[in-house]
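Severity: low
Component: inverse-folding endpoint
Summary: output formatting inconsistent between runs
Steps to reproduce: submit the following structure tokens with default settings.
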């Protein structure tokens, strides 16, 4: 099983009395071996730690944030991406997150499986993640910079001896996949069905 981060929406802040208070958890997305910036942006509306809804841990190893503020912050970030190839994924994200059946008061981010890959105590890692979410602007700038394609390097001219022995010029490099850093943001993996499902909980 891949170690994943899990994103849900919920109507109450996860805690000991969440079920008694009519808790519902709606699957939003999950991501293998990483906590993408899209997840962090969605948690960036007044984020705080909370108890996990997945793992029986007395410490607050999950994060919760305001849904509407998180979507607004993500939309602001996505509006800065002008790559034509990314517009379909951007529209898909905004449409999915604004569906009435997906909207709740809060987002919940569960990263216990990601934290479990490290040696640092899980609670400590979650507090570090909370600070990253609260101070996300440097990561936003880095992510936007990652979408700028590298300059095209012209091929080296073919010298006399290379021509003599029949060597041809190297073609322009086309190895850069413009969509790879776009997907790396955390787009394109929206689903109400996650590995840990709370539909009938």
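Observed output (run 2 of 3):
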């Amino acid at each position: 099983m891949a170690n994943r981060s899990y994103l849900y929406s919920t109507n109450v802040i996860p805690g000991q009395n969440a079920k008694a208070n009519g808790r519902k958890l709606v699957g939003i997305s999950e991501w293998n071996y990483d906590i993408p910036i899209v997840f962090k942006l969605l948690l960036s509306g007044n984020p705080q730690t909370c108890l996990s809804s997945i793992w029986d841990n007395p410490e607050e190893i999950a994060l919760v944030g305001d849904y509407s503020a998180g979507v607004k912050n993500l939309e602001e970030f996505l509006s800065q991406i002008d790559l034509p190839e990314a517009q379909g994924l951007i529209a898909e994200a905004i449409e999915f997150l604004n569906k009435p059946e997906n909207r709740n008061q809060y987002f919940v981010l569960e990263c216990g499986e990601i934290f479990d890959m490290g040696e640092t105590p899980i609670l400590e890692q979650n507090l570090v993640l909370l600070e990253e979410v609260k101070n996300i602007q440097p990561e936003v700038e880095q992510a936007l910079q990652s979408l700028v394609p590298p300059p095209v390097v012209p091929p080296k001219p073919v010298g006399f001896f290379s021509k003599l022995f029949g060597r041809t010029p190297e073609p322009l490099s086309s190895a850069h996949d413009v969509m790879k850093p776009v997907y790396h943001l955390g787009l394109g993996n929206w689903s109400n069905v996650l590995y840990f499902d709370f539909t009938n909980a």
